[in-house]
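quick q for whoever's on today - can somebody do inverse folding on this one?? i tried earlier but teh output was garbage lol. tokens:
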């Protein structure tokens, strides 16, 4: 199956027409386009970036392995993603994970049992409260304030690292009410942070981003990259979308960009109702991701390769090595810590992160064969990751977010999914849902 050539997109210099115009070539937009195309409905996907995939992005290492710099995990019960991978000729493999990660602080391995016990008891309290009545004070109390009230410096550091990597939020800008609601929606923190039976259960050998590339290749030439939508005029009889490269006349439109990004579009008439407020009451999280490539997973005889690193720059590390190698170590730095890396060079970031592991894995970790990185909060097209986050004091951005059509405008994206919002699985679900919504609304032919 060939990959799409994005430099071959025909330029839109004058008005084009289609039945359905889709804003965004992420997983939700591509799935919606595929479903509509299969029904013989003329679609056009408009993507502002010079690539497809949105919040998924696969690259090839110097050793030929594929790696994901964006969303990558196949969680337990993510049946749509598993089915899509099989359909597109990709293989899924189980994560190699220990029963619990190793907690590091400087050159010291933290006593896992005691620190985890204190943190777990605090998180258990949160989970219990999330299933009961959440205190009214939690609407304005931030997660940072909640953590600061927890006894024990190491326990606070661990909670900070777990909350940041799990949500990508600035913890002083994330309410306890939102954290509790997300915990309840995702089936509990244990599920969110676990590998086997949890959200990090499996990976795709060829990369989750490769699935987006193959979907776009099958839809070519109906996927146009470099065509950011500037404005949408929606009327009773149709929709006009304006891009820097021309206009699109459509019967209906689907917006799949996350709310803070979709809010950049000028809507005429202005949007009203719950969807209209999301652009003001949500923001995208901050997350930096890197993959270090080695000839082999040399660390396995000595340690698991799964770490939570405490300190002034907390981060998480996962062993994402494919079944036949080479060795992959995945680094996630989130929230404010992610932005601390912005002023450093590529070499400085690599040395800083790998240097934290060297006392525990051995000096080989300092010399990877290859290094790939991505700061998602610096991506102007995506805006951040993993998903849109509600501002403190509001419930507008709680998952799942609104998706009710406004006239001929329809809405998708992982934030709108009924199940697994915030994951690739949720994006697929939302794409299928919005496509069926449009199919059902269209006049039936005899």
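ok took a stab at it. sequence:
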């Amino acid at each position: 199956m060939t990959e799409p050539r994005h430099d071959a997109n025909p330029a839109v210099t004058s008005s084009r027409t289609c039945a359905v115009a889709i804003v965004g070539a992420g997983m939700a937009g591509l799935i919606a386009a595929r479903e509509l195309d299969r029904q013989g409905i003329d679609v056009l996907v408009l993507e502002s970036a010079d690539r497809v995939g949105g919040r998924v992005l696969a690259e090839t290492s110097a050793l030929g392995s594929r790696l994901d710099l964006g969303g990558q995990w196949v969680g337990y019960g993510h049946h749509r993603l598993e089915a899509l991978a099989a359909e597109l000729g990709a293989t899924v493999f189980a994560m190699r994970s220990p029963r619990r990660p190793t907690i590091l602080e400087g050159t010291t391995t933290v006593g896992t049992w005691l620190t985890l016990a204190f943190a777990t008891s605090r998180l258990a309290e949160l989970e219990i409260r999330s299933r009961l009545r959440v205190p009214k004070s939690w609407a304005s109390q931030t997660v940072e304030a909640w953590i600061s009230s927890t006894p024990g410096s190491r326990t606070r550091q661990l909670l900070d690292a777990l909350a940041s990597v799990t949500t990508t939020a600035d913890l002083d800008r994330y309410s306890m009410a939102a954290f509790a609601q997300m915990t309840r929606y995702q089936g509990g923190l244990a599920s969110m942070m676990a590998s086997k039976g949890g959200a990090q259960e499996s990976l795709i050998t060829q990369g989750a981003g490769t699935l987006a590339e193959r979907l776009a290749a099958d839809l070519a030439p109906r996927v146009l990259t470099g065509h950011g939508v500037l404005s949408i005029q929606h009327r009773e009889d149709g929709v006009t979308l304006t891009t820097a490269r021309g206009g699109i006349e459509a019967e209906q439109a689907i917006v799949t960009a996350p709310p803070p990004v979709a809010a950049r579009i000028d809507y005429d008439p202005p949007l009203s109702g719950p969807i209209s407020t999301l652009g003001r009451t949500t923001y995208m999280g901050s997350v930096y991701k890197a993959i270090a490539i080695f000839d082999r997973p040399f660390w396995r005889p000595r340690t698991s390769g799964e770490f939570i690193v405490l300190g002034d720059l907390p981060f998480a590390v996962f062993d994402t090595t494919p079944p036949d190698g080479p060795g992959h170590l995945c680094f996630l730095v989130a929230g404010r810590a992610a932005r601390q890396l912005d002023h450093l060079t590529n070499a400085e970031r690599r040395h800083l992160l790998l240097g934290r592991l060297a006392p525990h894995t051995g000096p080989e970790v300092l010399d990877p064969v290859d290094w790939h990185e991505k700061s998602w909060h610096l991506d102007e097209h995506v805006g951040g990751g993993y998903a849109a986050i509600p501002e403190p004091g509001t419930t507008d951005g709680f998952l799942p977010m609104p998706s009710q059509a406004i006239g001929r405008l329809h809405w998708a994206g992982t934030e709108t999914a009924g199940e697994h919002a915030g994951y690739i699985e949720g994006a697929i679900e939302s794409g299928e849902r919005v496509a069926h919504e449009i199919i059902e609304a269209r006049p039936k032919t005899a």
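fwiw The CA atoms of residues 73 and 203 lie 5 Å apart. also The first strand starts at residue 16 and ends at 23. so keep that in mind when u check it
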